[in-house]
Amino acid sequence: MREFAERGADLELVGIQKRFPGFTAIDHLDLTIPAGSFFALLGPSGCGKTTTLRLVAGLEEPTQGRILIGGKDVTDTKSHERPVNTVFQSYALFPHMTIIENVAFGLKRRRIGDALPKAHEALRLVELDHLAQRKPQQLSGGQQQRVALARAIVNRPALLLLDEPLGALDLKLRRQMQLELKGIQEEVGLTFLHVTHDQEEAMTMADTVAVMNKGAIEQMGAPAQLYELPRTTFVANFLGQSNLFSGEVVDTTGEAISIDAAGSRIIVPTSRAQRHHGIVTVGVRPEKVTLHRDEPEHAARRNLIGPGRIVDVSFSGVSTQYIVEIPGLGSILVFAQNVGIGPIASVGDEAWVSWDVEHGFGLEDDAAAPERFSADDSTTAIAAQHREALVSELEDR
After folding, report:
1. How many whole angstroms from its chain centre is CA 233?
2. Same structural domain, 244 and 222
3. Which of 8, 69, 150, 160 has its CA 20 to 30 A from that of 31?
4. Domain that includes residue 303, residue range
């Protein structure tokens, strides 16, 4: 029987490999998540993130490797014996129970004393104790998600797994819950592993983000670090949008490299470039780029390309998105903050674009390898499996 955790425990995956008939879902994954941290595993469908969660939860067995929680090897430990709870996108609440009964269920199942006071405490943490006597169907989707969270943390697991937990909520409520989840994690001090495909969600809540691609971690670090300095084409394009240019390095100094991209000279700081010789790919984020209606004077620490032609203008409220088609370089994306009234340029206008050299980055890779496996299992199916196990235990009592 697992014990209560006073605080979060670290999670360590050592040499994890998971093979299914016909494909490899995870290929030699090494990962350490410090105790008490909010860690996000981010990636598209099919990258292996849900499989990783299932391995940590004990719903799958690794083909190779070890799983350690708080330094204890749990690779061969059954799911219900691990100090882990999961919050799914599908809330899996018992409809015939009240909210307080749903939250207290796990405590009573384990014969923990003061189950109801502890359940009320968990509901107060998610600000729902005043609805304790209602049934799940009487709550909104956001309230049901909070109940699912309270039910998960009331057991004080050393590790809480969040699998696309906010995917069923509308945009405004999802953003509100992102901030609340982060606040709850900081208050209870448990280790949170958040699995998601939503970049904004991961970057809003997590201390550390690991971007996963084709069964391996492509890059890991603080959200701002990954966004400002992506190392690969996949990370540059998956975390937001990027303007990428490929060309041969024509000059290298201790401070910067210069590439020739279809006749345009683009400079990137050496410290922000992964490769310094040969054909390299460099990039800049659209919000760092400035749009010019007239050709500006050349500045030493600023890249300037053009002229081109504006082919699309999209107003989004806080900013206007411009697509500038430049011969030889293709489409350049520019996000201009709306500080005036209306767009500063129109479709068909001639334009130049520029950005500070310090805002550029150079990538280490190129062409992506072909896909090796199909999409992750549905999180709804995992939640159904979790609920069936709970119902079975309830019927046995």
Report:
1. 17
2. no
3. 150
4. 232-362
